[in-house]
Specification:
The chain crosses the membrane at residues 9-27. Keywords: Membrane, Transmembrane, Transmembrane helix. There is one protein chain. With 165 residues, the protein is of the alpha+beta class. 15% of the residues lie in helices and 39% in strands. The chain folds into two domains: 1-32; 43-149, Immunoglobulin-like, CATH 2.60.40. The strands form two sheets. The chain has a six-stranded antiparallel sheet with strand order 2-3-4-5-9-8, with no helix packed on it. It has a five-stranded mixed sheet with strand order 1-11-10-6-7, with no helix packed on it. The longest helix is centred in the N-terminal third of the chain and has 25 residues, at 7-31. The radius of gyration is 24 Å and the shape is elongated. 18% of the residues are buried.
Length: 165
């Protein structure tokens, strides 16, 4: 008797992948962590996206629906670190750890717009790509924090052209 002519084997070969894929999604639906609103007074980490590691000119930080981004801007008074947030912030500050291991005292950002979503601070130190920036934010009395390298600080492309415009 040929193995593949048996109707039970054929049925099992068709049904098994459907059951496997269906059970994978159903188990995920049952056991995954449900998103919840930020609780007042709690601290939540912000995850640095991949653009923070290379010369993208921008670093995106996210935790669920709370998103913010860091950019280095050249101003008349020198370089400035700007923070843009998806939610209005109550306070923002950043500290730096130099490549030598020296820690710079955290500096508070100043609010740049009326909606409290754009913040900035002058850079008084020379930041290298190996410099680590530690950011602490407060929104709706919940605290958010992140740590990433300053590799994103300079915007470079292989075409020597600014594609951000």
């Amino acid at each position: 008797m040929n193995f593949f002519k048996n109707k039970h084997v054929i049925t099992a070969m068709i049904v098994t992948p459907v059951l496997a894929i269906g059970s994978y999604y159903l188990v995920d639906l049952l056991v995954r962590e449900q998103p919840h609103a930020a609780v007042e007074g709690q601290a939540y980490p912000l995850i640095a996206n991949s653009n923070c590691r290379y010369t993208s000119g921008r670093c995106d930080l996210a935790n669920s629906d709370f998103k913010s981004s860091l950019t280095l801007v050249s101003a008349d008074s020198g370089r400035q670190l700007q923070l843009t947030s998806s939610h209005p912030l109550q306070q923002a500050q950043a500290g730096f750890v130099m490549a030598s291991g020296e820690q710079v005292t955290p500096v508070k950002f100043t609010q740049l717009d009326a909606t409290s979503t754009l913040w900035g601070m002058p850079l008084t130190i020379d930041v290298a790509p190996e410099t680590v920036v530690r950011v602490a934010l407060r929104a709706n009395d919940a605290h958010y924090f992140a740590e990433t390298s300053m590799g994103f600080g300079e915007y470079q492309t292989t075409f020597n052209k600014d594609f951000r415009k």
